[in-house]
Amino acid sequence: MKNKWKTAFFVLLGLVLAGIVTIFILATVPPDGKEQEQTKVQDGEMVGFLIRTNRDDVNKLINHYLQKEVADSPVNYQVQVNDEVELYGTVPFFSRELNMKLTFVPEALENGDLLLKQKSISVGQLRLPVPYVLEFIRKSYKLPRGVEIRSNERQILVHMQQLKLKSDAKIQANTFDLEKDDISFKLLVPVK
User: Fold this and answer.
1) With a threshold of 0.90, does the pTM exceed it?
2) I need a surface site. Which of 8, 48, 65, 103 has the fewest CB within 10 A?
3) Nearest to 66 by CA among 91, 97, 87
């Protein structure tokens, strides 16, 4: 009788040990038999997020950004995004201030910058040459970092990644189709 209990004990002990070993092996083998790869992060690496928006939100964002970036400028101006990009401001003319409106057609470039091609201009009832007005704006208005006025080409180039954002994030223009109200950006966030 002693041998039966002894044998039963060792069989039970063997089953328990076999169960523990089986559970340990199953727990340590990766799923689907594949080794898990660790994602390695390089210094300075950026992760991109696609952001879709509309004209109304872009208007709020641009004018909030301008208020912060050019608040101490002696000349007031604002940007309005409608069917085209419109810049409103004033131009000093002798002792008066003349209202000015420039319209631009935006184009998202492959490198993520935004090109604004000048479409029309009105300064009161005066007919002024576009390069002259753009050069006046370049010299007189305080522009945010990353905004380059190319007066002879009648263009404004917005280097999107040079715009000052919080947390060292950067932004790239992806699409800027105002007719379809299809505006998207890529937000690049540093991971280290």
Assistant:
1) no
2) 8
3) 87
